[in-house]
Amino acid sequence: MDLNSDKTIQKTILSSVLQEGFWSRWIAHGLQKDVINNNLSNLASLDGWINVFQKEAKNLTLQAVKYTDNQNRAKAEQCYRLSGQYYNLIQWILPEPNNRKMSWYNECLEAFKKADKQSKDDIIKYTLKVDDKEYIGRIRKPLREQSAIVIIVNPIDSNKEELYTYETDFAEAGFIVLNFDGPGQGETLLIHKHKANKENWSSFLSGVIKFANKAFPGLPINLFGTSSGGAWAIEAGKNPFVSKIVSVSPPPGAGINLPDYFKSRMSNVLEDVDKGFLPDFKELQLVNNIIVFHGLQDVMMDSQELFNLYDQLSPEKRLITYEDEGHCCNFKLPELRQRSINWLKGENINGV
């Protein structure tokens, strides 16, 4: 491990100890709160971090096997996915895209592969070629009436496996879900070495939308993105094939306030940290049929800048704010996903 990677790991672990809300993201994505609270001292070192989460992952795998033996496929799928999430957290703490990180990520991928076999839905891995680059993703087709497509646009620091609850909720509601690792993310980064910049993120999303339109003709194509993924969902919403957009906590420009440990991580996923990769947000009047969710306690960006961005969007549009939520509205995610599902289906989103 090089010196920069070691410093980044130490910054990240220190942030996990000192920063209120550090674990909110992971708890929102399935992590069991008791696992954190019962192991705070152990999680203060890299070895402890790995040991705690590996132990949980193995225990969940054993539970999944028992559920499989008892023909309880739903519980087996749930345990395998959560096991994968713990392995995912181990690879995430390792910032450098190397063999060690890939080894832990493979454990995550293997757990998800086993979960997919237990699912009642048809789930496949797919490699999409766009402009001579390859992007690895998941396509989930519910085995019931399919009303539309949802393309999940993940934050730059997340992979397609982390946000599995999003995938599950939309599939449960009858949507075909496309969930790909973009430039700088997951398998696309670790296997194909594609780091992120503005150009390849634009071409990547254009490619996914084009593929969705060709693979599932006649079905509306919707985008659901959070954080930087929310920003790119807005930008990609200019595509004429896109029907509706949901954007959660989209950074309105370059002035996003990133935690120190996060800045250190970005050098491993971006082509040029100084140039960044977020869209420039030009011609926003071309974007409509959009809902923007925002937590008013978000310290990573200026609310007024987001409101100014929202004002540039064309109707139909709606801004929904949560008074007590921060970035990504972590503790309202189940609610806002349900409100989004209702809206994507043409239903009223109030009262949820």
How would you describe what is shown here?
This protein has about 350 residues and is of the alpha/beta class. It has helices at about 5-20, 25-30, 35, 45-70, 75-95, 100-120, 165-170, 185-190, 200-215, 230-235, 260-265, 305-310, 335-345; strands at about 120-130, 135-140, 150-155, 175-180, 220-225, 240-250, 290-295, 315-320. It folds into 2 domains: about 1-120, de novo design (two linked rop proteins) (Up-down Bundle), CATH 1.20.1440; about 120-350, Rossmann fold (3-Layer(aba) Sandwich), CATH 3.40.50.1820. It has 13 helices and 8 strands. β1 (about 120-130) and β2 form a beta hairpin. The longest helix has 24 residues, at about 45-70. The model has no long low-confidence stretch (mean pLDDT about 95).
